[in-house]
UniProtKB/TrEMBL annotation:
InterPro entries: CE4_u4-like (IPR049591), Glyco_hydro/deAcase_b/a-brl (IPR011330). It comes from Metarhizobium album. This is Polysaccharide deacetylase. One of its GO terms (biological process) is carbohydrate metabolic process.
Length: 247
């Protein structure tokens, strides 16, 4: 499949939005940021070039002033809370979880409160009171305690469900975690984005793209670069900050 054919479903759907006089809201979440790296510089350069807001899910325990100083030069980036340490507490028989029911809920909430406070202090102008659970998994009892910590939103992967917090999910994952562990096929990704936009056209909501800059291969980088270039000036869509979508 050539590049034009690969992107055709997405571009056709965006053209439909434009023809209807509507604008699709897109947002970009990138997970596991901790410190300045060449990969982070590449992501910031790419999003900055195309005027695309970027939501970085930052791991509180392992980050510090160096990342804050780097992001001072990237005003289009905002920061959300990515758990506490990104440590798996589930047994080998279960899927990985940091925020599940494997520890007392008060301990989990204590860590999340510490993470909230640390990132809010480090990233005052760009901090978003949104939790991004590591591995996109979180226990119901933990979710119930988030509002008391100051969280206004929760972001996982997949369709949104009702709960005590605003949900701003991601819906298309750039990475092939169960195969090559690199970037997925561009045509498949474009088709998935088009399918999400068709759903949103009828039901409302935003469309979230999930990336992981630290493990991108050239396939992943090329998809992201092409997507941002194609959507930059398209009248049928706009890239939004998480803050604008939840607050």
């Amino acid at each position: 499949m050539n590049d034009t054919m690969a992107w055709a479903p997405l571009m056709a759907e965006l053209d439909r939005w434009q023809a209807a006089g509507r604008i699709a809201d897109l947002w970009l979440r990138d997970d596991d940021a901790v410190e300045p790296t060449p990969a982070l510089d590449r992501l910031l350069a790419l999003t900055g070039e195309h005027d695309v807001p970027l939501t970085l899910a930052v791991i509180p325990e392992h980050t510090g002033a160096a990342l804050a100083a780097r992001l001072d030069r990237a005003p289009w980036a905002e920061v959300a809370v990515h758990g506490w340490s990104h440590h798996n507490h589930a047994p080998a028989t279960e899927k990985k979880q940091e925020l599940g029911a494997h520890r007392p809920v008060d301990i989990v909430l204590g860590e999340l409160g510490a993470g909230f406070d640390k990132l809010a202090a480090l990233h005052k102008p760009r901090f978003v009171p949104m939790l991004v659970p590591p591995w996109n998994r979180i226990g119901a009892a933990v979710v119930s305690g988030l509002p008391d910590l100051g969280f206004k939103a929760l972001s996982v992967f997949g369709a949104e469900k009702s709960g005590p917090l605003h949900l701003l999910n991601t819906h298309v994952d750039l990475m092939d975690w169960h195969g090559t562990r690199g970037g997925r096929d561009h045509g498949v990704l474009a088709t998935e984005l088009a399918a999400r936009l068709k759903l949103v056209f009828e039901q409302g909501g935003a469309t979230g793209l999930l990336t992981h800059h630290l493990v991108h291969d050239e396939q992943a980088w090329l998809f992201l670069e092409t997507l941002l270039a194609l959507t930059k000036n398209h009248a049928g869509c706009r890239w939004r900050t998480a803050a604008a979508l939840i607050l």
